[in-house]
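Continued from yesterday's entry.
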Amino acid sequence: MSGLRLAVVSRRFWPHADEPELWLGDLVGAMRELGARPTVVTAQWKSNWPTQAVYREVPLVRVPHTSPGGWGTLLYMRRLARWLREHRDQFDAVLVSRLRLDAYAAIGALGSSGLPIVVRAEGAGEMGDAAWLGSSTFGGRIRRRVFAASAIAVGSDVVRNELLELGAPESRVRCLPAGAAPPNHSWDAPNETEAHDASAVRRNRKQAARQSVSEACSDLLTNHDDPVFLYVGRLHRANNLTTLLRAWQHVAQRWPRAWLWFVGDGPERSMLFQRVKEAGLRQQTFMPGSFDDVDDFFEAADVLLCPARAADASPTIRRALAAGLPILASDVAGHRELLSDGGGELVSTRDAAAWAEAMLRLADNVALRADYSAAACIAASEFTLDRSAEQHLALFESLLKSPLP
């Protein structure tokens, strides 16, 4: 919808971002390219951060959130609500990431204004929004308010079903998958021939990407033929990273020139680093931290690892498919859906031996990786970033014309 003035609310955003927020940054950029006028409203986690900035040509507003603990969160919610009320004439609609405190504050501030408010649920299983709403101290109160949003966007049927079980109004739930764009929007792959061409392009660009990554972090310097396994996401127990490390011990022993990169941050970082040291894997395992742009990592790696126990389809898998990156993913519902047409393999979630076997199979077989890369390119054409942006804008356009029951 050309010219739509959209407030995009997310408590976490660059530079404090997890998988959903990284994807949200891509989405607002794509909506801007389609003619919308998004403004991101997020938290100012540190007092020395500027209250206004620009992220990929999108205006960014930070609401103070510098006090830790529950009182600091309450102050942030009040400030967010006040900011939205004071600036409501500057927007035509509101998109809120996650069905949590931001959504509660936004709907409380603007629910009677007539502005369409869409809340987007993120994650599934124990780390998802539905689980949080079901277990949080004030989850019932928050649930009643966020379920009154103009619409509830979900990325998969798994999340949809979780919310319906909690009592979400079925008429307001809309499935809008989190599409992804290939690195630098460099290619599309609607058929098998073009997919193999894209796979060849990927191989040619891998060395340049590895050089770029090593310039950002010298520890990541590798040779062109060294197998690189990549994990991108939050370092959290729900993502099953200890199983991955147990598998990696066998792979690293067999392949002394193979590498494992953990790109991201989280509460398990110190524990994982300690286990890496204890296992003698420091020379082959690196944790460079979080990056707001991970395109080079997807182009530099040979295999993406997604061992999460969550049942939802990871946005990272969608990005990997768009990049033509072969995938090893835990055998859960959302991953089965994404890899049904190829692009990688499903692995028993908690079976370290199975993970090691799958990783070794791909490390040993360059031709198999090329086949998965081509299949990934074809699969990615089903859920592009532009399509996601178009679907979100179309939803807002329909809500402005006629609210959902």
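--- second protein ---
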Amino acid sequence: MSKDRSPDTLIRRAKQTRDQADALEEIWLKNALEDVAQAYEWLALKLAAEPTNSIN
């Protein structure tokens, strides 16, 4: 699995995205970034649960 697709990297990106959202005042943009953070976490969980040889 490439490093940029590892669960740890995706969780780190989710945290960074949330930190960026916290710095914003535009509620719609905060909500959009929260959705992105949740997508990173979902993908990290999915990748962590799959055997490494099944990831393309």
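The helical segments are 7-22, 27-49. The longest helix spans residues 27-49. Will compare against the first tomorrow.
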